[in-house]
Specification:
heterodimer, A: 177 residues, mainly alpha, Rna Polymerase Sigma Factor, Chain: A, Arc Repressor Mutant, subunit A, B: 240 residues, alpha+beta, Leukocidin-like
Chain lengths: 177, 240
């Protein structure tokens, strides 16, 4: 299930080779950071989530089972960390002000608006949208990451996109923006 | 609908799907809504993480590992049955214990003959040379406590800034390595930047940080601590 090179790196990490782990960090830091950033909408929190994720991965590497892709296992840890961080945060208060300001700002960027709309979804739904549409993961991988069935992933994604559409309507976002 | 959204319908399924959409306008609206959302979400672009992120991650991992593998931790993890399971170990442990008791007895006898002022300066003191200095500026208050040892310097920095400040540790000679950075919380510091001769970060809230610098050559060399607020230097200290 995992690339030979990656399997070798993981094996070396398990023997305490931190240089091998550094290679994994360099390879995956960008997707993990982006996943955390989309879920928390804070560069500072995304950085902390990324750091904590890799520390946990390093500490729990012995419990990783190679029949699952390494990135799925990594994403599962990152997603849980990011969701916990997002739940602890008080983003909604900040967003409400941002949203009101945005209503009057003609130059409001579309990407920012989409990200702000995403932040109005529940963290779990937001994570699903990010994994599917930003990281382009397949349903089996997402199902493993969130530890639910594929059919649950599909139906929840459908609901999340529908909820997002309602938020977009309220915020006046469309493809024409 | 899911297969249509994913683009995995075969030719016959496509025909059935098109016909279904024509007969059920509400399904068509729902489908178009899902397609629109999917297209909008594709417009989000990947963001480049901060350049220092991999080194910051490895720093924290190595610091944790170093603490975990310190001789003290390894001693604490040893089980007595491991030590006493072999006769040779048993004998060595007994001998060591005996010697320890002998040395302790001799030390107690010596202390009884020693001047009291000398005893009060020795007993209870931690190893290394300790220095404490208060930071009492209008805009930043705190304390810096550093311990100089033959091969390392440990710096404990407690700060209560009234506005964000930038802290910079700069090597005055090039033989010190940052080996530990403890007490960091995500909401306390930001903009961490580590180069071979300089460590810089911003503090936005009261913090209590501990930094370990190890010497790669003979003895620790001095470095300079500078604290800036709004680009203005407000505190400076040479740590040696």
């Amino acid at each position: 299930m995992i690339e030979e090179h990656e399997a070798e790196l993981i094996s070396r990490c398990r023997q305490g080779d931190d240089k091998a782990f550094e290679k994994l960090v360099i390879k995956y830091q960008k997707p993990v950071y982006n996943l955390a950033l989309r879920i928390t909408h804070s560069s500072m929190l995304a950085e902390e989530v990324t750091q904590v994720t890799f520390i946990k991965v390093f500490e729990k590497l012995d419990s990783y089972r190679c029949e699952f892709p390494f990135f799925s296992w990594l994403y599962r840890i990152a997603m849980n960390e990011a969701i916990n961080e997002a739940r602890r945060g008080k983003y909604h208060d900040k967003l409400d002000n941002h949203y009101l300001a945005a209503e009057t700002a003609a130059s409001f960027e579309l990407a920012d608006a989409i990200q702000d709309a995403l932040m109005l979804l529940r963290p779990g739904d937001r994570a699903l949208i990010v994994l599917r549409h930003f990281h382009q993961l397949g349903y089996p991988e997402i199902a493993y990451i969130i530890n639910r069935s594929e059919s649950h992933v599909k139906s929840q994604l459908f609901r999340a996109r529908h909820a997002l559409k309602q938020i977009f309507i309220q915020m006046g976002i469309s493809n024409e923006n | 609908m899911q297969k249509a959204l994913d683009g995995t319908l075969n030719d016959s399924e496509k025909l059935i799907w098109q016909s279904h959409l024509q007969q059920h306008p509400e399904a068509k609206d729902l489908f178009n809504e899902q397609v629109e959302m999917t297209n909008l979400l594709q417009t989000l672009e990947e963001v480049q993480p901060p350049a220092h992120l991999p080194s910051a991650i490895m720093h924290r991992i190595r610091s944790k590992s170093a603490r975990h593998h310190s001789w003290w931790t390894r001693m604490a993890e040893l089980r007595l049955q491991d030590i006493f399971s072999r006769p040779a170990y048993s004998f060595a442990a007994g001998l060591a214990l005996g010697l320890l008791l002998l040395v302790a007895t001799l030390q107690i006898n010596t202390l009884h003959q020693t001047d009291n002022t000398l005893v009060s300066g020795t007993i209870g003191a931690l190893p290394g040379e300790h220095h404490v200095e208060s930071i009492l500026q209008d805009n930043i208050q705190g304390q810096i406590h550093w311990i100089t040892q033959p091969d390392r310097i440990e710096v404990q920095l407690k700060l209560v800034p009234n506005a964000p400040v930038t802290i910079q540790f700069k090597q005055l000679q090039d033989n010190m390595t940052l080996t530990g950075f403890r007490g960091i919380k995500s909401r306390e510091i930001q903009d961490l930047n580590l180069t071979t001769d300089k460590l810089e970060f911003a503090v936005v809230k009261p913090c209590n940080l501990t930094l370990d610098f190890s010497s790669s050559e003979s003895g620790p060399s001095p470095f300079q601590l500078q604290i800036f607020q709004l680009g203005q230097l407000c505190y400076q200290k040479v740590i040696e």
